[in-house]
Amino acid sequence: MISEKIQELINKQINKEFYSGYLYLSMSTVLKELGLFGFAHCTRNNARDKVEQGLQLLDYLLDCHSFVTLKQIQAPEYMFDGVANLFKRLYKHEKSITESILEITRVLQNECDIKTYSFMNIYLEKQQSKEKNIEYIAKKMEQLGNDNTSLTTFDNMLYSQ
User: Is the pTM of this model over 0.90?
Assistant: First the structure.
């Protein structure tokens, strides 16, 4: 069984991952309504990934005979000022998720919980990859500016992935 402090941190992370899923899903619906099906497809896939990551954390706690405490999930945003700002918001959010995981790993180091530390490092690698992908899209959107032709081309590229 892992410490109560670690249980609490991982339970908070589970909530953050499920909230992230909601956030991506809300953005996906907005993008689909705008007819940007590639961006909608991308964010919907990210929603699935976030929920899956939350479930992996939940299963880890259960496998360690630790307590899972599911809390209320905050309602996500639905209003965004353009696609570029939407992805800037997502990138900022992903950075905060990465920082949250890093905080857990710092506590794990202090508590010498090698098993959970090892698990969280694998989880951290996946998160850093997710953050990098969203950063790429956010930067690309910033470069495109208000060029609708480029936006459509990029949207089509995302849809084919």
Answer: yes
